[in-house]
Each structure stands twice: as structure tokens, then as C-alpha cells.
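Hello, quick one for you while I still have it in my head. A protein chain has come my way and I'm curious about its shape. Can you walk me through what the C-alpha cells say about the fold? No rush at all, and the record is pasted right below.
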Amino acid sequence: MSTLFTLSFSVTVPFWALMIFAPTWRWTRTIISSPWIVAAPLVIWAIVALPVLGAMWSLVTSPSLAAITAATADPAVLTALWAQIIAWDLFLGRWVYRDSRRREIHPLLMGPLLVGTILLSPIVFPIYLVVREVARRDTSPVPQPGSVGAQLP
């Protein structure tokens, strides 16, 4: 189980490396554009979760802190939860990467934000949302007099 636990993150490292260290490379955009990059940790999730699916089903249909705490003592349940978290973080990081490229947010700013997404996505994702709003305002075209949308005095 320990091997699958470690493997669930290891299979995502090449994708994170592309987004962080080669964000403008043509192949990075091509590879990261596919939502299938999250398939490997999800396959690991399926391998680990299928044998304990009954236990996991009861956790999601009748969640309680005590039940989840007890269930995570089972290495298979914990590994499945970890693989799910890793897949979600990669999916979220993929969205952040693609959105930032469309908005032309500088890669030197995005590198640390993507690393933060790997480590603490619930904290860093709202920070990225603020960054994208600031970037949107900075890149908004200024209406020219006489153009559609220009304000009259």
C-alpha cells in the first residue's frame, strides 16, 4: 500500500514540472490541455478503493468525523483519499495554469502559485482568484473616445 500511496503523487510530478518549469513551451500547453493527465492518480484510486468501496461508500453517504477518523486507520482507505486529493489538486492546478496562460499572467508569478497549489490548494486557489482579477483589470483595454463603450462626459 505504501508504494501506491507514493506512486499516486509521483505520477503527477511530470505534469507539475511542465507547468512550473516550462510554462511557455508548446508541448506543455499541448499536454496540459488534456484533462486525461489526472487519469494516473485516478487509476491508483480505483485499484485501492474498489476493495474497500463499501466502507468508503458509507463514509460519503453518512459522514461523521468519528467514522472518517476510524476509516483512515485503514491504509487502503487513506491511500484512496490521498490519490483523490492528488488528482483534484492536479485538476485544479491544470485549470489555474491554463487560465493564467490565457490571461498572460507572468510565469514567474505563476510558478510559486502552482507550487502552492500542490501544497495547500485551499489557501492558494483564492489567492490566484485575486491575482487573476488584478491581472484582468491591468490588461483591460482603455476605451478610446468615439469607440463603442466609451463614456461620454
In short: The radius of gyration is 20 Å.
